[in-house]
Design goal:
The complex is a heterodimer. By secondary structure, chain A is an alpha/beta fold. Chain A has 11 helices and 15 strands. In chain A, strand 3 and strand 4 form a beta hairpin. Chain B is of the alpha/beta class. In chain B, 32% of the residues lie in helices and 18% in strands. Chain B has a 10-stranded mixed beta sheet, sandwiched between helices. In chain B, a hairpin with a 5-residue loop joins strand 9 and strand 10. In chain B, helix 4 runs antiparallel to helix 5 and helix 7 crosses helix 11. The longest helix of chain B is centred in the first third of the chain and has 17 residues. The two termini of chain B are 17 Å apart. The chains are: A alpha/beta, B alpha/beta. Chains A and B meet through helix 3, strand 6, helix 5, helix 6 and strand 9 of A and helix 4, helix 5, helix 6, strand 3 and helix 7 of B. Strand 6 of chain A pairs antiparallel with strand 3 of chain B, so a sheet runs across the interface.
């Protein structure tokens, strides 16, 4: 391994299926979904939504009780797990990059409601409102003293954060970065996606003929990335290696992906070029797979354009029906799940998928868990505003 | 020091105008508690109806980005796009909540939601100028604009992009201003000197404002037919020893000032042989949070490239004697220093 190769030495994750990498591996192996049905609004607006809420036993805090800090707390959980696995136990001059879209937004919603109702608004609700506070909180709690910031590429934010960390290490500007993504469920998020008519009233069905939308979710995932030199000096064994990052903007529409898939195809091609891999090198792709009509079509067309005749030989999956769509965290959640899959030699099942959309001919979607040892995988992310990202991972061979 | 980049073009919109000279307005004017941009000129090729639906945050970004792209003479190919903000469009988010509270989730406005999300300005700029080579929105505090420029310079130096369109925008909202006041962050009463670390009973800070600034950065070697406006190099203040003719500080009486004071002292003490003059940018255009340090960067550009003069402001007593009095006329270099309220520092050197 070269000194500037980017190793993963720690992973941490919390989502609808529970807290910790072990809980997520168990969910992958046992094809277990964490989706639940619950209300987000009161009185006459009370109706249930299918969503991926972190279960009470993993995170015993109601949304109302963590209005100003829910994203902070979730990301801190993921960071702690990742840092512990990476053997980082003291103050550390690592950088910290977090991807998010709404962060602790619910504090703002409650504050504004109080103001509208002529109550004295609680200024404390806004302490976590600025998205940058998620990075501050995790850095303070975990004594990470290097540069820190937050990025927002909509639902590709988590992947973008990891991509920035990858670049920072490859270019020698940091030897260690804790990077990931977070999203905390709140009424604003549910109402926002509901207003766009993107929510499914049933568990989502990625790439299915009958797919009709997504289920929003919450969670956080963090990875400790470091140069091979740094890992070697600390005598830490890498879990996997990040080989490439690619990104693109579609310049197409505010909220909808370009159905031709050109943005995500460019991100994949750029990542492959960074890794000096051909498309033939990729053994598995963990797709964004939100189960919206346009996202899935866009990803299929991208896969077709990148893999061509090899498309049926590349097993793919979506785990949105397991965790829900964790928005700003999704790219980081996908990264951690891809690393777990790579290490366990399994292609996760795309839960609730029944019949492939006839438009997606040749797509090798794993309907059930497939145990296939493989060494190279890609994870794709797409976000509002046409933001696309792709990360490439390689298994560590000892 | 990091690899330098060249500035190929700049664009801005602030309450006092859309030219670099707009930044040189009377400080007295900027002491008003709130200064707003009255109108945003249309940009070529965009229908007025499309612009009307957008947030001010997005319209500011589009205008400043269009100026910067036009000034740079660059096409879209190979150009990364990075936008720094502190949060999404408050006006659109409030409108969304009004509908949500009054009529329920089925009647909340999709337009308000999609225009209020944090990456809406980037998405619109990307679409308007067909920028497809990647980029992101960077979220941060008072030093964020400079952090965005820093990231772009590094990315260009490592061949991630041929050039970057890098900007920062801020939209005023009364509810946010009230909240900042409630948190003791900004009182609108101009401080007697700068930096002005908040005392226990105090609640000061420049008047607040809004606007946008964009830069086009590219490698120095890619300037073949024309010269860059000036040279830009990200600086690690802990290692910086060279000194500059002018220092532009982002102190404004807000929560960032205790970090600004500490850095300015350290900077002066580490270069005892050279006493630069000190310019405070906030008295010129008010507090603009994430945008502020990018406007400071424009001030530095204006000083270095155009020999512009900016008024001085009384110094914190601990800085007296460490910096030179105001010196008008051309300067070879200007160092921009910006602290965020969380103690994160950014700095960059602008040179002829």
């Amino acid at each position: 391994m070269h000194d500037t190769d980017v190793c993963i030495t720690g992973i941490g994750i919390v989502s609808a299926v529970g807290a910790g990498a072990a809980a997520h591996l168990d969910a992958l192996v046992n094809a277990r979904s964490g989706l639940v049905s619950r209300p987000f609004f009161e009185d006459s607006f009370k109706t249930d939504y299918i969503c991926g809420m972190v279960p009470h036993e993993a995170f015993p805090h109601a949304i109302a009780d963590t209005a100003a800090s829910r994203a902070n707390l979730l990301f801190d959980m993921a960071c702690k797990e990742a840092l512990a696995q990476a053997g980082v136990r003291r103050e550390c001059r690592a950088a910290l990059i977090v991807g998010t879209t709404a962060s602790n937004f619910h504090g703002g919603t409650v504050y504004y409601r109080q103001k509208r109702e002529k109550q004295k608004p609680d200024g404390g609700l806004l302490q976590g409102f600025l998205p940058g506070t998620v990075a501050d909180f995790a850095a303070t709690r975990n004594r990470i003293t290097g540069r820190r910031y937050a990025v927002s590429s909509a639902c590709a934010s988590g992947a973008t954060a990891i991509g920035h960390a990858f670049r920072m290490i490859q270019s020698g500007h940091a030897s260690m970065v804790c990077a990931g993504g977070v999203e905390a469920l709140c009424p604003f998020i549910v109402a926002g996606f509901n207003s766009l008519r993107l929510l499914s009233k049933k568990p989502c069905m990625p790439f299915d003929r009958d797919r009709d939308g997504l289920n929003v979710g919450e969670g956080a995932a963090a990875l400790v990335l470091e140069s091979a030199k740094s890992a070697r000096e600390r005598a830490e064994q890498p879990i996997a290696v990040v080989k490439g990052f690619g990104e693109a903007l579609e310049a197409f529409h505010h909220t909808r992906s370009n159905p031709d898939g050109s943005g995500i195809a460019r991100a994949m091609t750029m990542a492959l070029s960074k890794a000096s891999w051909g498309a033939g090198s990729v053994d598995h792709v963990h797709l964004h797979g939100t189960a919206t009509v346009f996202n899935d079509l866009s990803e299929y067309n991208a896969m077709k354009s990148v893999f061509g005749d090899r498309l049926p030989d590349v097993p793919v999956c979506s785990t949105k029906s397991m965790t829900g769509h964790t928005l700003g965290a999704a790219g980081a959640v996908a990264a951690v799940l891809t690393v777990l899959s790579l290490r366990a030699g399994l292609v996760p099942a795309t839960l609730f998928h029944q019949t492939i959309d006839p438009e997606f001919s040749g797509l090798a979607l794993a309907k059930t868990l497939r145990r296939i040892p493989f060494s190279r995988a890609a994870a794709t992310s797409l976000g509002f505003g046409g933001e696309a990202a792709c990360l490439l991972f390689e298994k560590v061979t000892i | 020091m990091n690899a330098p980049a060249g500035i190929a073009g700049v664009g801005l919109i602030v309450p006092s105008g859309t030219l670099l000279s707009s930044l040189r307005t009377l400080p007295q004017e900027a002491r008003r508690e709130v200064r707003l941009v009255e109108s945003v000129p249309a940009i070529p090729g965009m229908a007025a109806n499309d612009m009307r639906r957008m947030s001010k945050l997005t319209r500011f970004s589009l205008f400043a980005a269009s100026q910067a792209m036009a000034a740079s003479g660059r096409g879209s190919q190979g150009t990364g796009l990075f936008v720094g903000i502190t949060h999404g469009s408050t006006a659109h988010l409030l409108e969304f909540h009004d509908y949500l509270f009054d009529y329920g989730p089925d009647m909340a406005s999709p337009n308000s939601f999609s225009n209020g999300v944090t990456n809406a300005p980037l998405s619109s700029v990307s679409s308007a100028f067909k920028l497809t080579d990647g980029g992101t929105t960077i979220l941060g505090y008072e030093n964020n604009g400079l952090a965005v420029l820093d990231y772009c310079a590094q990315a260009i130096a490592h061949s991630e992009y041929d050039a970057c369109l890098a900007g920062s925008s801020e939209e005023y909202a009364a509810v946010v201003h009230d909240a900042y006041r409630a948190c003791g962050w900004h009182g609108g009463e101009a401080p007697a000197y700068l930096p002005f670390p908040r005392d226990p009973g105090g609640n000061r800070g420049m008047g607040v404002s809004e606007g946008s600034a964009f830069f086009v950065l590219q490698t120095l070697s890619s300037f073949t037919n024309r010269k860059p406006l000036c040279r830009f190099t990200p600086v690690d203040l802990n290692r910086y020893k060279d000194g500059a003719d002018v220092v532009v500080s982002g102190a404004g009486g807000g929560p960032q000032d205790r970090f600004e004071l500490a850095s300015l002292k350290r900077l002066a003490e580490s270069n005892p042989g050279k006493k630069p003059s000190l310019v405070f940018s906030k008295p010129l255009f008010g507090e603009t949070f994430g945008l502020g340090s990018m406007l400071s960067a424009l001030v530095a550009c204006d000083i270095v490239a155009n020999g512009a003069d900016y008024p001085s402001f009384p110094l914190h007593p601990q800085l007296a004697g460490l910096f030179a009095p105001r010196q008008d006329g051309p300067a070879q270099s200007a160092l921009v220093v910006a602290a965020g309220r969380n103690g994160q520092m950014s700095a960059a050197l602008f040179e002829k």
